[in-house]
Amino acid sequence: MRPNRFLHAPHIAVAKPVRLLLFLIITLPFSLKAQNEYYQSGIKSYNRGELTEAVLAFDKAILMDPDHLNAWYYRGFAHFYSNNLSKALRDFKHTLKLDPNFSGGMMGTGLIHNRNKKYKKGIRWFNKAIKADPLNPDAYNNRGTSYYQLNDFGRARADYDKAIQLDSTHAQAYNNRGSTHYNNQRLAVHDRDIHLAIKDFTRAIELDPSLEMAWRNRSLAWYNLNEHDKAVADATQALELNPENAQTYFYRSRALNSLENHSKALDDLGIAIKLNPENPLPYIESARAKKELGYYREAEKDLATAIDLSSAVSGEVYYEWALLNARQDQKLRMLDYLKKARKAGYFENKEHIQKLQSAPDVKDFRSDKDFRQFIKQL
Length: 378
Description:
46% of the residues are buried. The model is unreliable at 1-30 (pLDDT under 50). This protein is an all-alpha fold. It is elongated, with a radius of gyration of 25 Å. It has helices at residues 22-26, 30-47, 51-64, 69-81, 85-98, 103-115, 119-132, 137-149, 153-166, 171-184, 192-207, 212-224, 228-241, 246-258, 262-275, 281-292, 296-309, 314-327, 331-343, 350-358, 369-377.
């Protein structure tokens, strides 16, 4: 079975702040020394993730020196990561007024367009950044993200290749290239691309064990190779790094369900739903777990909630509803929901037909003439 596409974007990369030599501070006049201290304080707060404090410190540095390019630049990223995109854009544009060839301002502007899902505009700005600084691996990495979001995995992978060529320790680029290998599986017949993805995710983890996204991505890849124990282990590590990610709980729940650990799967799904109650997929997975535990009415409620949240999952919901009725030996209701799934386009994917034919829930119906007729019509 081919895996679903990742539901998240590759990680963006930001250049590390420049560290100024301390001996230079000693020789500076008082006003310049104070301005530099505010700037250094902003950098320290930025690195600690204290974005409000960073902005305040950069404000003071800019007040004392309105031409301090790096203060404008890093204040822009402090605003960016605080989701104050309009202020971030203002700061990045100002860096380009101070220095029209400053690739950092171009790259920051591109990242804002990416955040606003204007990926083609992002590409134009990353092109400018690459022209200004063709040896900056982050520019290629971030342009690759734009191509990735446009489903142009070939160009995305080429950019990640270039980023890695320029910096062989670029963990984010390895993670992102792994994502393109994984999504290329939608076009491939075999598992080669998933193995390439795992290789890249593993390299990203080796370079940066704190890169939570790489652990989560590798968990998904393991799941699609039916390596469910490994999928659980990687998802668990990702949750240790970020216990607030609903997607990771969902990924781990699917692996747990495959390992027939349905109670623990439901625990994870409860958290996933609490963190993101608008996502229909955890409700579908919850219905699968409850079906295995014999909680049929509760499973039906979950399926009803999923279809209320998004009609886009109606085919999958009707299919699961059919299996739920098959488990209860309700032939007519099973066939009715299978017909609804067909009408919703679920069986246009030939792999779904194979999945139905091999589903344990329908084993008692495989010789039934009505069921066989339905299969024949697909």
